[in-house]
Amino acid sequence: MTELTTKKITKSDLNKAFIRSNFLMASSNFERMQALGAYYSVVPALKKIYGDRPKEERVAAIRRHLEFFNTNPYVYGPILGITMAMEEQTQETEKESVISVRTGLMGPFAGLGDSLLAMTVVPIYMSIASGLAIEGNPLGPILFFVLFSITIWPIKYKGVFLGYEKGSELLTGKNGSNLLRRVSTMGNVVGMMVVGALIVSTVKITTPLEYSVGESTLKIQEMIDGIMPNFFPLLVTMSVYLLLKKKNAKNAVAIILAIMVLGMALSLLGILG
Fold first, then answer.
1. What stretches pass through the bilayer (predicted)?
2. Taking the CB of residue 153, how many other CB atoms lie within 10 A of it?
3. What is the pTM of this model?
């Protein structure tokens, strides 16, 4: 790693990032999920880091943080802190590692936040508050708000600072360059695993086609699943990816409409299930 950037991010910037991170879900959409909210969170830090840098670098930084992003909002703080530390402490030739690490962390943190907080702690608090509310006790909703606040807000606030501090310590350490390469590689691997899991779990395409051979009936879907499960979802996903890449994603709306029309037409014809 070449000479590192002098630290520019202050406690005030971290506080601004924390406040903005609470709007992570405000502009969530089905194309890039929480990308706009994630970008909004790092805007103050990016202004500090890239304020005097060439326009090309500023544009590249904005594009990096508008990439697809989706995680549990309760545990977004550490990812945000690490992201800011990497933007500050890496050279322009190493910036791809920022996206690799951010993408690699969003899946594990989402699982952690969903299982421990969103699906365990919060429902417990809600059941306690609901029990009081059903009995006519007005303290029920207030109790939930208090319990939720003393649990979630410290995690979110401390997470930003802890992520930034630990990220900076690792990157500025003796083996910072080697560590960055290793973390980047791991982030790429985990990120690809997350994307692969998303394809399997969200893209559902089957065909009811079948044909008879003598007294036997062969189902096309079962034959394909026996050779390569989830072949149709993979085929469609790769096709959409290549089309988006060809036009630099400027044809996203046209592709969505085309998939809707083609899907309905093939379903009416009995080709798709």
1. 116-134, 140-164, 185-207, 227-244, 251-272
2. 13
3. 0.64
